[in-house]
Amino acid sequence: MITIEDVTKIKTYHVKTLKKKQNVNGVAIGHKIVAGKDTGELCVTILVKKKVTKSELFGKDLIPQTLDEIPTDVKEVGEIFAFKSRTDRWRPAPGGVSIGHYAISAGTLGGFVKDRTTGETLILSNNHVMANSNSASSGDAILQPGPADGGGNPQDRIADLERYIIIQFLSGNGGGDCIFAKSASGLLNSFAKVLGSKHRLVPTKIQAEINEVDAAVAKPAWDNVITGDIIDIGVITGTKPAVIGLDVRKSGRTTGTTTGTIQNLSATVDVSYGGGKIATFENQIVAGAMSSPGDSGSLVVDGSEPLAVGLLFAGSDSATIINPIDRVLELLDVEF
């Protein structure tokens, strides 16, 4: 009977030779898999970047069926990379990583949509992530990673703000006559010059209104700067309406990939944006705790399929607040 000690000895003896073969990037111990079924038989498992036919390899690169009477097996594992933090610089950039307008801290690159008029691919996130809560202009630099994660150099510019839905703050909250707003916009305009943005901030007075979404889109700065998929989720293939009890997940900058359950629909909530600014949102989706600051902008999707349910934009220690995705798409005039 073959023991794990026997296989370990043979694997150790042959590992250097096996790793020299084309396409091999690892050697391990496992069970022999035949027709997709685990036979339970111990073997030396050769990890390859991609399984290919014998005709595609030179004789010296073929994997023998046995090594000193110990069976072998070949397992495709792809290219193996050291995992990157979501706050690192990603090129090309997927959904689920740090991003932000040059004047904010950082949020999440939610995903990718297409302009319904031009067909261009755009980056989707929140207004407060890519448009600095209304204090931005079309064309402003969007950085990846966001400023809080080290973004701030010209090479960190990944996109230019295309358009956003204005957030209407309650009267007396965040008006444009504030001295701080004027002085801050002057400082940020100086920073804009360094980043090459031709657009400037203009403090404006906001009247009391009811909001539906906190959303914005940005145009990638050049070809191949984005991947088109979202970490751990993949490519979004459509949308799905929220229903109470629906299991959902999101891929975000701060807490990574998390899951939750839709608990409430048609919620009217007051959301604090800091600095005394409060905005009321109607027809919102409420899920359980599945996010933290910095996850804003994440796409919330169905628990088992890559179908978008909503756009995460706010939350607390016990709740996550989500814009219904169909309304986001409609107001921004985009689609998946």
Short account of what is shown:
With 336 residues, the chain is mainly beta. The protein has helices at 4-19, 127-130, 179-195, 325-332; strands at 24-34, 37-48, 66-67, 70-76, 93-95, 98-101, 107-108, 111-115, 121-125, 141-143, 157-164, 210-211, 216-220, 226-230, 238-239, 247-252, 256-272, 278-288, 299-302, 307-315, 319-324, 334-335.
Any key phrases for this structure?
2 domains; mainly beta; 22 strands; 6-stranded antiparallel β-barrel; 336 residues; 4 helices; Thrombin, subunit H; GMP Synthetase, Chain A, domain 3; 8-stranded antiparallel β-sheet
Please tell me about this protein's structure.
- The protein is mainly beta and about 325 residues long.
- It contains 4 helices and 22 strands.
- The protein has helices spanning about 5-20, 125-130, 180-195, 325-330; strands at about 25-35, 35-50, 65, 70-75, 95, 100, 105-110, 110-115, 120-125, 140-145, 155-165, 210, 215-220, 225-230, 240, 245-250, 255-270, 280-290, 300, 305-315, 320-325, 335.
